[in-house]
Amino acid sequence: MLNFQLVRTDITKLTVDAIVNAANSSLLGGGGVDGAIHRAAGEELLAECRLLGGCKTGQAKITKGYQLPAKYIIHTVGPVYRGYDDPLQAENLLKSCYIQSMELAKKYHLKSIAFPAISTGIYGYPQKEAAQASFSALKEWEKNNPDEQITIIFTCFSNLSYQTYQELLT
Ligand code: AR6
Fold first, then answer.
1. Other Cβ atoms closer than 10 A to 144
2. Centroid of chain to Cα 25
3. Which residue, 115, 6, 132, is CA-closest to 60?
4. Does the C-beta of 134 come closer than 6 Å to ligand 1?
5. Which of these, 12, 41, 72, 126, has the minimum number of CB atoms within 10 Å of its CB?
């Protein structure tokens, strides 16, 4: 079973088994939450990321958390919302980010994982649609993995994002 929680905070402050990074395909850092995670984790993170050979959109890779309170960082690459002719393609890729992150959580026996609202910043995915896609992807994963007990922390940085998730979860 998945246990869903909602917090409004900076994801780099969370003491959890893993935080998820909304990265780009180079995995070498950037702005937004990616920049914040790299700054907080320190230079060793970049050194490990250099060895990973990038990451495709919708896929996920894991590193250690270094200076973060979180043990691991799961790096996933969300879709650029306007990069696809069909919004369904973007939706499927966004869902895949959540599902592939959960597959890594299962593989590494992680019990708590914090997600930011992937793709809703620089990549332009509308908040509400992104929240719905993330929730439905996680519910689908839960259905296919009924024996897993993992706490999911939706981490919102803005009030709007927080309110959107609050409506979904209640
Ligand atoms: N903690 C939690 N959430 C955050 C934080 C934080 N410290 N900082 C931002 N957010 P974005 P994207 C929220 O732009 O849209 C990078 O340059 C933010 O409010 O970080 O997937 C990468 O390298 C928003 O709701 O990621 C890529 O090039 C959400 O995190 C590109 O941006 C995602 O916003 C990825 O764009």
1. 10
2. 14
3. 115
4. no
5. 126
Its pTM stands at 0.98
Amino acid identity of residue 75, one-letter, is H
CB count within 10 Å of CB 147 equals 6
For 62-84, the pLDDT digits (tens) are 999 999 999 999 999 999 999 99
Superfamily name and number for 2-169 = Leucine Aminopeptidase, subunit E, domain 1 (3.40.220.10)
Indicate the angle between helix axes 127-144 and 87-107, nearest 10 degrees.
Answer: 40
Cβ pair 153, 5 in contact under 8 A: yes
Structure token digits, residue 90: 């973007």
Query: Ligand 1: which of 82, 115, 122 to mutate, judged by most atoms within 8 Å of the beta carbon?
Result: 122
- Provide the residue ranges of all domains of the chain, joining segments of one domain with +: 2-169
| Residues forming a β-bridge with 33 | none
